[in-house]
Amino acid sequence: MSRHLGFAFLLVACLALSLGVASASPAAVDSGPSDPVRDVSIVDVVPENRSELTGVHTVEAGSTLLVRGATNRRDDRTAIDVTVTDGPDADRIGFATVDSWGFDGVWTARLPIPADVTPGTYTLRVQTDSETDYQEFEVVAEKRATLTVRSAAADAVVVDATLPDGGYVELHDGDTVVGTSSYLAPGAHERITVPVDGAPTTLTAVAVVGTPDRRLDPYTVDGVTVSAPVRVTTPTATATVTPTASPTPTSTPTATPSPSPSSTAASGPGFAPLAALVALLIAGFRLCRRR
């Protein structure tokens, strides 16, 4: 009897132990099919001059398309081909091949967009030897930035600017920025005063893409930076007129009349004999009359 009770006790203990282990084990959760790790993917499609953006954004004709993505492949074993496969002028945009990236797997590619490309929806394709990813994006007509210098002085420059995406106006002295406007919202602006730092003599005003807290790259039109030369006018010092001393009048001496020569009785050695001769003739004439 005791043998049967011991066996029953052992059976109950084993059963309890198995139930405890089963309850301690987490139940398997059916999460459905998991996404496989992709060899390559597109992350960002943005204009190069607005590289701080993320996600997919419109790109202007005449700009450069910046593509960022990720891969789990090693760059010494594969390359990534980036091309535009569909769109009104897809065959004119060209392609790029990426053959190096960092350990984080982040890669970048740049595709120039022709200035006269037809606006519309385009399809971007990235491809390795084993996988492909696609992303649509929009190309819009080029929004041209403009810049005109109204006036310039040694301490400030006044400009008119049209900045389609907002930004700033910078003053460059060679490669050095010597003046920056306050942030300008997208649109046209008149009489923007840009202070000048220092005393440069040769300046260039440059339209720059930017956000309220960051300056980015210059605006371009047909691949050329939107800028305007600045001619600084230095005020000309007014010469002090020195009064000319008036000459002191010099008194004109009064002419002293020369004394008129007075008549002087004739005298001299030749006159006495003549007088004596005349006297003799008169005396002789009187003597003859008496006889």
Automatic annotation (TrEMBL):
Keywords from the named record: Membrane, Transmembrane, Transmembrane helix
Domain DUF7282: 148-217
Residue span of region Disordered: 235-267
One Pfam family cited in the UniProt record for this chain: DUF7282
Transmembrane residue ranges: 270-288
Name by which UniProt lists this protein: PGF-CTERM protein
Organism: Haloplanus vescus
